């Protein structure tokens, strides 16, 4: 019980700047919860990058251990669904924002926030997917619920070389969609084709002001970018199509018009992974274990250790990271 572990702790200075340091902690230092987990793997998401660099107000209580995703083994549980030794995954629920997060050897959380690690996956596999991949799956499930099947036409993925984008490209191509990958890194063309993209377009084609309606180019899309990019994606979506919007890498604004909605019956599907209900999460993780090519997972991931987290957080907000960063906590 007195065993200690390392944790990244972000605190706030008097001048409101942030300080980030590595601390030795014990379980007694953790926040409330009915399940304690040995964190075996985690990942660095864009949001974690924002949290650690302080570039956006992700952290809403100080001091805080950041890290919104982890996979590991239950050490102790007072929750009916979990017992010692269970393998679990956690994404979101305010962990790494208001509740101590994943960048520590141990986490104590509510058992209601955990989903079972699919039997076919290791903790590192699950973190190669992470919130980014699970959000990509939620986007694909939303398109499916809207009837956007592969025979309806191409689908576009924006921010394709990023975490959400690269998993979305991989899942959609595995499901038989013709995937148009939009990226600013055309040097990543071979990588995106390897993931299953049928066509690559330069993101500059989508990043300027959108016309109310453009040429119909795709039946749907997964958008991780927002702003002008989402406006262009919508204006180029064919009649009755749908776009799942989950990100804001270009901006939080949406300089669009109602034209795609009222003249082409296009739908905008909002995707939130943080508070998504348990049933949807369990379905997403089940689907990820079936619909994501495991061999492609390794091509998507860069492996680092605990000591690399802070540097990776800086790199991701500067757009220097391709695909997913997986942290081996062992
Ligand atoms: P990454 O940083 O890995 O990927 C973002 C990608 O967006 C980049 O790789 C780049 O793709 C593209 N991009 C970056 N800046 C710009 C720009 N100025 N204009 C156009 N494209 C740009 O982040 P993630 O994939 O982890 O997350 C993507 C987005 O989704 C983020 O905004 C994140 O906050 C959000 N998100 C939302 C969730 C939710 O629950 N709704 C959950 C998870 C993430 P390329 O290099 O190919 O051009």
TrEMBL record:
InterPro entries: Acrylyl-CoA_reductase_AcuI (IPR014188), ADH-like_C (IPR013149), ADH-like_N (IPR013154), ER (IPR020843), GroES-like_sf (IPR011032), NAD(P)-bd_dom_sf (IPR036291), Zn-ADH-like_protein (IPR051397). Residues 16-327 form the Enoyl reductase (ER) domain. CDD domains: MDR_yhdh. SUPFAM superfamilies: GroES-like, NAD(P)-binding Rossmann-fold domains. Transmembrane segments: none annotated. GO terms for molecular function: acryloyl-CoA reductase (NADH) activity; acryloyl-CoA reductase (NADPH) activity. Pfam families: ADH_N, ADH_zinc_N. Its EC number is 1.3.1.95. Keywords: Oxidoreductase. It comes from the Bacteria. SMART domains: PKS_ER (SM00829). This is Acryloyl-CoA reductase. It comes from Nitratireductor arenosus.
């Amino acid at each position: 019980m007195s065993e200690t572990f390392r944790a990244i702790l972000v605190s706030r200075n008097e001048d409101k700047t942030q300080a980030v340091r590595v601390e030795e902690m014990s379980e007694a230092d953790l926040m409330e919860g009915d399940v304690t987990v040995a964190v075996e793997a985690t990942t660095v998401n864009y949001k974690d990058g924002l949290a650690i660099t302080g570039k956006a107000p992700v952290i809403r209580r100080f001091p805080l251990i950041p890290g919104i995703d982890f996979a590991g083994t239950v050490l102790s549980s007072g929750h009916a669904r979990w017992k010692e030794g269970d393998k679990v995954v956690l994404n979101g629920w305010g962990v790494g924002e208001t509740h101590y997060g994943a960048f520590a050897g141990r986490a104590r959380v509510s058992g209601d926030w955990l989903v079972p690690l699919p039997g076919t996956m290791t903790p590192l596999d699950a973190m190669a997917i992470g919130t980014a991949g699970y959000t990509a799956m939620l986007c694909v499930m939303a398109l499916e619920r809207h009837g956007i099947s592969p025979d309806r036409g191409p689908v576009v993925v924006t921010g394709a070389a990023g975490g959400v984008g690269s998993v979305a490209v991989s899942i959609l191509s595995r499901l038989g969609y013709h995937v148009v990958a939009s990226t600013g890194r055309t040097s990543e063309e071979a990588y995106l084709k390897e993931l299953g993209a049928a066509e690559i377009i330069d993101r500059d084609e989508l990043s300027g002001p959108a016309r109310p309606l453009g040429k119909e180019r795709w039946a749907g899309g997964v958008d991780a970018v927002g702003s002008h990019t989402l406006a262009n994606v919508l204006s180029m979506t064919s009649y009755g199509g749908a776009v799942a919007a989950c990100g804001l890498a270009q901006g939080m604004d949406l300089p669009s018009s109602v034209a795609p909605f009222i003249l082409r019956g296009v739908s905008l599907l909002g995707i939130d992974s943080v508070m998504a209900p348990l049933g949807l999460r369990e379905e997403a993780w089940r689907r990820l274990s079936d619909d994501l090519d495991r061999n492609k997972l390794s091509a998507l991931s860069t492996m680092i250790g605990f000591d690399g987290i802070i540097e990776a957080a800086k790199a991701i907000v500067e757009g220097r990271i391709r695909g997913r960063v997986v942290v081996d906590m062992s």
